[in-house]
């Protein structure tokens, strides 16, 4: 397959005008400035006024719905009601999930994969419940790490829950497109005992470990003092536990204390960090996934990712689920940053949306660049604007955040727009 376009982004730094990518099997054979000789007269798919680039990477999604905010609600369900707080929102989601029929989880996961492909995303990390959605994950066309998400605050049932996770992750077969991960939900829903077991398992199996961390202002109150709005919410939804003891410290310091704050962990959100948390996080080598639109949806204060980037923390971009986002588009996540966080360049954003996500997901294949020998994971976006200034073109791409007109994974077209 030979693709041609007005622009080719070989990696976030390198933009070529009048570019081509030649794919043989599942790899890039050659790429660069188009010429007949270079391409041996092979017939090209000419994509015209577009930019061809490496497929985008979304290390944090919840595809199994409920898709109530941005998409069509599941059959029989209404859209989310206006909410006062995160806990108010979470209660609505929990109630909705308890009522959802098994086929709705399958349908929403399938829809999620299609939406990712339409947005040029070729690699996703999805927090899921494998037992109910295994067939959809097994047959998806996108590269993926399927994380088994678990909640249980009771330290006395940690072993039982851990055994369940180990059973569930065996329900789908790993291959070079499908990896498995473990995802304790958050420090306010999972005991230290279960965190430690899951981390040990991830380390031993060399698989990614993902958890929501420092997402909420109230999370700190619960973890440092053992009380507040989250405690009341846990009681209301039946997730509080008599045997759970608050650690008396912030989420980051808690993770460090129980030995989880190091690779292969990555931490989703990290919205509320003290200076001490930032120093500890930067030394840990763990990755952070920032979800800008979901962050805005819940009205959190400015995210400290620029400080983290300065300290060389690997910060990637995620979409979170459709319960707190209108779309599953990494370009739209970049756009939000461009509009609201001065001082971040389009090149930096493109790195966060590709290479940094791959690092968080512990991708081992050659991905994230369109160079010979790399895996042919490609997206192409329409770009009407003409400019010879690379940084300006990248900015236009992010600002317009179009849908992909062709998405390719391992040399196979998985979406045509
Ligand atoms: Zn999430």
Helix content: 25-40%
Largest sheet: 8 strands, mixed
Report mean pLDDT, rounded to a whole number: 93
Would you tell me the structural class of the helices and strands?
alpha/beta
Number of domains: 2
* CATH architectural category of the largest domain: Alpha-Beta Barrel
* Poorly predicted runs of 5 or more residues: none
Shape: globular
Description of the structure:
This protein has two domains: 2-54 and 368-416, Urease, subunit C, domain 1 (Roll), CATH 2.30.40; 56-360, Metal-dependent hydrolases (TIM Barrel, Alpha-Beta Barrel). It has 15 helices and 16 strands. Strand 8 (143-150), helix 4 and strand 9 (178-184) form a beta-alpha-beta unit. It is α/β, with parallel strands linked by helices. The protein has helices spanning 86-99, 102-118, 130-139, 158-169, 192-205, 217-225, 229-236, 251-257, 275-284, 292-297, 305-310, 330-340, 346-352, 355-360, 390-400, and strands at 2-9, 15-24, 27-33, 45-46, 50-54, 56-61, 121-128, 143-150, 178-184, 209-213, 265-269, 287-290, 315-317, 378-382, 406-409, 412-416. The longest helix has 17 residues, at 102-118. Strands 1, 2, 3, 4, 5, 14, 15 and 16 form an eight-stranded mixed beta sheet that branches. Strands 6-7-8-9 form a four-stranded parallel beta sheet. Strands 10-11-12-13 form a four-stranded parallel beta sheet. Zinc ion binds at residues 60, 62, 127, 212, 268, 320.
């Amino acid at each position: 397959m030979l693709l041609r376009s007005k622009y080719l982004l070989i990696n976030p730094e390198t933009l070529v005008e009048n570019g081509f990518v030649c794919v043989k099997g599942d790899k890039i054979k050659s790429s660069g400035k188009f010429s007949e000789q270079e391409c041996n007269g092979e017939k090209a798919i000419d994509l015209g006024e577009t930019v061809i680039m490496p497929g985008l990477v979304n290390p944090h999604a919840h595809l199994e719905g409920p898709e109530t905010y941005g998409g069509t609600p599941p059959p029989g369900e209404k859209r989310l009601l206006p909410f006062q707080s995160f806990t108010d929102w979470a209660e609505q989601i929990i109630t909705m999930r308890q009522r959802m029929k098994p086929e709705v989880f399958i349908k929403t996961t399938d829809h999620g994969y299609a939406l990712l492909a339409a947005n040029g995303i070729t690699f996703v990390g999805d927090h899921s419940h494998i037992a109910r959605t295994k067939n959809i994950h097994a047959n998806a066309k996108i590269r993926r790490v399927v994380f088994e998400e678990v909640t249980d605050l009771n330290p006395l049932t940690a072993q039982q829950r851990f055994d369940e996770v180990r059973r569930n992750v065996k329900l789908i077969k790993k291959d070079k497109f499908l990896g498995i991960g473990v995802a304790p939900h958050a420090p306010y829903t999972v005991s230290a005992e279960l965190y430690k077991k899951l981390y040990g398992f991830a380390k031993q199996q060399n698989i990614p470990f993902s958890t929501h961390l420092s997402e909420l202002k109230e999370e700190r109150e619960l973890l440092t003092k053992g009380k507040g709005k989250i405690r009341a919410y846990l009681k209301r939804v039946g997730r509080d536990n008599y045997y759970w003891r608050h650690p008396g410290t912030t989420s980051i310091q808690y993770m460090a204390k129980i030995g989880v704050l190091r690779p292969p962990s990555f931490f989703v959100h990290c919205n509320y960090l003290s200076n001490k948390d930032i120093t500890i996080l930067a030394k840990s080598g763990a990755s952070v996934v920032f979800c800008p639109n979901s962050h805005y949806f819940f009205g959190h204060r400015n995210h400290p990712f620029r400080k983290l980037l300065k300290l060389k923390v690997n910060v990637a971009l995620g979409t979170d689920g459709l319960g707190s986002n209108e779309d599953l588009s990494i370009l739209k996540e970049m756009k939000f940053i461009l509009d609201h966080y001065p001082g971040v360049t389009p090149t930096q954003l493109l790195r966060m949306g590709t290479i940094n996500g791959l690092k968080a997901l512990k991708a081992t294949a050659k991905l994230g660049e369109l160079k010979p020998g790399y895996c042919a994971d490609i997206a192409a976006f329409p770009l009407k604007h003409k400019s010879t200034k690379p940084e300006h073109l990248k900015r236009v791409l992010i600002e317009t955040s179009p849908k992909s007109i062709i998405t390719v994974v391992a040399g196979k077209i998985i979406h045509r727009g």
